[in-house]
Amino acid sequence: MSRASLLLSLAALVAVLALASLLIGPAGAGPVASLKALWAGEGPLGIVLREIRAPRAVLGVMLGVSLGLSGAALQGYLRNPLAEPGLIGISAAAALGAVIAIQAGVSTLGLGVPAAGLAGALGGVGLILLLAGRGGSGLGLILGGIAVSALAGALTALVLNLSPNPFAAYDIMFWTMGSLADRSWGHVLTALPLMGLGWAVLLWAGRDLDALSLGEEAAASMGVDLAALQLKVVLGAAAAVGAATAVAGAVGFVGLVVPHLLRGAVGAMPSRLLPAAALGGAALVLTADIAVRLIMPERDLKLGVMMALVGAPVFLHLIWRTQVGK
User: Fold this and answer.
1) Which of 29-38, 98-107, 195-204 has maximum average pLDDT?
2) Are 288 and 307 in contact (CB under 8 A)?
3) The CATH number of the domain where 53 resides is what?
4) Hey, which of 79, 228, 255, 276 has its CA 20 to 30 A from 159?
5) Gap between the Cα atoms of 214 and 229, Å rounded
6) Which residue range forms the structural domain that includes residue 167?
7) How far is 180 from 187, CA to CA, in rounded Å?
8) Could you tell me how many helices (H) and strands (E) the chain has, helices first?
9) SS3 label, residue 112
10) In this predicted model, what pLDDT tens digit does every residue of 93-104 receive, in sequence order?
């Protein structure tokens, strides 16, 4: 299959899954009636489709694009198929900001929690760049990300441990599991500008990542500014993943699984993998979100839990294959 055919197929799959996300749910009245209600926007079903399911589907696409694209870019920059967005600590920093907001009494249904999550992500990426150093090695970036992730995780646990409010602790626990439920158009509009900026920056870095795949010295001889490339990848991933975590909670493994699944179809060149991983991420998140509504609709199974159940075995398989291949 050619690259163009693959991208068209993935785009069509995303469209079908987004439509399925709109039509699946307890308030459904059949596909035809649901589509009519969606078009007219009238009655209880029309309100459910336009104000609850539509933003959830759109946010699912945005979340998948952010995580898949960021994972492919980080794997290309670090030249490590085991790299993923959570590795550089942005998700943990965004989660910490949101957790502090919840503990302070901010409702998880409003936009205060996403705003605090974005602030946490920006603070985290600043600390990561400070630790890694401008133009530092990939190892410095990984170590800085691990340090920030560990610190943010410890502070999140501390907030939970010291929380005098059991309801806030309950909200924190379930928010950190990641979910697209109860999201509104306000969440979409809050995240979209920063996500869009992150997507543009990461796609812009594609050609430089191609050169870096030949090695740092070869890339530098081809005119690639390695310090600028590091900034592009880190800031692009921080913008996309930070905004995604701020509005949807912690959803892992998408950035690890999707590039691994698609690399064989598009080749190892990062510039070819980036758009495919973006569409593949959207398809995977939409599929998982539909699954959580079908498997245990009465128990509110969380999206982050579903992705962990899928991603952890893939991660173990990658580690096993890496070790056996030595």
Assistant:
1) 195-204
2) yes
3) 1.10.3470.10
4) 255
5) 15
6) 3-325
7) 10
8) 15, 0
9) helix
10) 888 988 888 888
